[in-house]
Amino acid sequence: MKKVFLLLIACCFAHAEVGDNIKSYELGEAEFMAIKDKDTNMGKSILLEPDAKIVKDVMPDDQNPSSINAFILKTKDKIILIDTGLGSSGELLQNLNSANIKPENIDIVLLTHMHADHIGGLVDSKNEKIFSKAVVYAADKELEYWLSDLPVNKANIDLAKTVKNVYEDSFKTFVWNENITLEIKALEAAGHTPGHTVFEITSKNEKILVIGDLIHSLKVQTADPKMSVTFDINPKQAADTRVKIFNQITKENMKIAGMHLPFSGIGYMSKDVNSSYKFTASDK
Ligand SMILES: [Zn+2]
């Protein structure tokens, strides 16, 4: 009896731990998983020209619990990872391991864009490949931007050049509106970065839109999608893109997955009063 009881406790604890960092969803004939890299909390300091009244109303405590998320799509013949987190300061690899996904079994890595918190996990501390057989994809405009010799963001540029070199011919580019696999279509979402991309994933009439870094501050940017953040390279374009995609996802009631929404990052957006929006997390 005692043994059974202990086993039960161990089992529950194991599940609780996995559930905090890994969440699995059915998507038609595929499996879609959220994998946490790290918890974050960046308050109003990340907002660009914030509307003080809105910030006070929706985030009076200056708390913005959010996350760095990556997503896995498992189809019948491929494992696809979308974004790779921070690398050594994140926990993506441990959490993939808990989900029984080995880095060497990942076939494709898709990048929404090439900021360090999305490409850091591609290489280890010795600058060697983490995903040994994967083909890595970014938008052509994104790679072009980070490979040009810009006077800003030096550390990020160095990292982008490193991952491109390390993956050599396995680093490829796509153009917007291209289907990368049967299920995944890359769509333009520029502004946050010049090649920022959202991925529309469809399997047997079920759809999810991976929105990348369209949202960093859930409370504030759903209250006012025109508000951009300091990480947006072109803040005006980022705001226009956010408004356009918010309209589309609410009109089509499309499930979304966000890289910086609180884990699991998956849910639905609905239109609220006064041209604001409401995000509702989804458990299935
Ligand atoms: Zn990011």
Q: What characteristics describe this protein?
A:
single chain; about 280 residues; alpha/beta; seven-stranded mixed sheet; six-stranded mixed sheet; about 25% strand; binds zinc ion
Question: How is this structure best described in words?
Answer:
It is a single chain. The chain is of the alpha/beta class and 284 residues long. The chain has a single domain (2-281), classed as Ribonuclease Z/Hydroxyacylglutathione hydrolase-like (Metallo-beta-lactamase, Chain A, 4-Layer Sandwich), CATH 3.60.15. The chain is 29% helix and 27% strand. The protein has helices at 2-21, 52-58, 92-98, 116-119, 140-147, 154-167, 218-223, 235-251, and strands at 22-27, 30-41, 65-74, 79-82, 108-110, 135-139, 171-174, 184-188, 197-203, 206-212, 255-258, 266-271, 277-281. The strands form two sheets. The chain has a seven-stranded mixed β-sheet. Strands 8-9-10-11-12-13 form a six-stranded mixed β-sheet. The longest helix has 20 residues, at 2-21. The chain is globular. The two termini are 35 Å apart. The model is unreliable at 1-17 (pLDDT under 50). Bound molecules: zinc ion (ZN).
